[in-house]
Amino acid sequence: MDSRVISANHIARTDGSLLNVMTGRVPLSVVWALTALGAASSFAAEQAVGANHAERASRDAIRCASGKPEVAIAACSNIIGDQRETPENRASALRTRASFYQQQGDLDHAIDDYTTALKTVVKTAEQQGVLAKIHLNRGLMFFRKNDEAEALADYNEAIALDPQLASAYLNRAAISANRRDDDRAIADLDKAATISPNESGIYLSRGFIYARRGESAPALADYSKAIELNPADATAWRDRAYVYRVLGDDSKASADAAEAIRLDPDATSAHLYLGLSLQAAGKAAQALDEFDRAIKLNPRDAHAYMARGNYYLAQRNLERSITDFTEAIRLNATMTAAYVNRGTAFFGRSDWDLAIADFTSAIALDPKEGAAYLNRGLTFGAKHERDRAIADYTQAIRIDSNALDAYRHRAFLRQQEGDSHGALEDYDRVISSNPRDAEALRGRGFVRLNLHEPDAAIADLTAAISLNPTDALAFGFRSLAYAAIKDFKRADSDDAAARKLNPTTR
Prior knowledge:
The protein is elongated and about 120 Å long. By secondary structure, the chain is mostly helical. The longest helix has 18 residues. Helices cover 72% and strands 0% of the residues. Among the domains are: 129 residues, Tetratricopeptide repeat domain (Serine Threonine Protein Phosphatase 5, Tetratricopeptide repeat, Alpha Horseshoe); 101 residues, Tetratricopeptide repeat domain (Serine Threonine Protein Phosphatase 5, Tetratricopeptide repeat, Alpha Horseshoe), CATH 1.25.40.10. 50% of the residues are buried. It has 26 helices and no strands.
């Protein structure tokens, strides 16, 4: 089997012609700018019955409005339970206590208070804004409890009560995005941006959706706007770095990732993006440092192990790459690319059965992962199981009709199986897409030689040699073609050249 290296967008260079996937992109870790609005917390300093009560009521009012959560909750509870307080003060204390429960992450108590608060507000035109904000905050609590249906109902009600409440559109967009209803999410974010054009979180959230959809231009515009509005937001710099990586601009990606790290040295994914950009720029040692930092910051980040594993694989350090891919799989057993790339490493050390097991696992996770079929086909070929190899190459071609590597390798096996015409069709497909594919030209030249077409064989082999003057096989095959047309002088010259390049050539 040849050891030609294949490269493609976001595919690492590996040995054995195996494809290594998912090295250039790391999924965005979205940080939705979900918004909660604080409840009203002013209390009327009305005359209370009795000096002691007045003093206590005043103290509770201050603590309920501005104390630490534990102190504030106790003070607000005093007001809520005090029948001598006005209904307005008790209702306001209820909303304020809900907001402190919210701060503490006590979602159930916050929901209970917001629900009770909704019953205390008189439903008048003047109070619609208050009701809208309560629905907004309760919706956020439901969202954090992963109860999207209840959250969506609250956000819808908030928007119905106050169509200018930008936060409700933003939060509703988060639910649509979670459900992969990107068009609906973008529509809500467009509305939010119209209402609050200076809210950076809106652009950050919309940029995430565009980036996930592969729409780099609008994603870049939104992240840049978020940075313009809030240049201290590390997340915006980090995510714009991701888009620059997708666009292949590693210099700008590195700069943005570095700025994200300056703003937030513990931003794991920023170190990861910086490492990938440095690796693409050929700065291997610096890239490894960033991958190491990412793992140190978050030892449970499967993508960081994946990236470092790819680094070691590119460096031909198979054992360390296998260790990192194994850890990535332990942390995320559904990471298809980790199985493909660990299989590639196993292939590199000739562990055929382990490689096949990993490629098969990748296929089970994603039946449309063409690289897994291609690589498993190569491994079956290494085990001389040609029929199974051809079947995998054929499936890779079904998945991607432009999978030239699959055509090339299938052509080679078809030739070995005696299917010269099938081999010729596959080589034609490769060469029509890439006339400078020296390996395919050499292969087609050999097929034409076997089909007794020596002149056509000589043309292909001459083209192959011009592209790769050190190809001993091409010289050897052309020697046979010249001999077939009785041009023995050129045949002898090519035979000598082949033996000089590779003394074992026969």
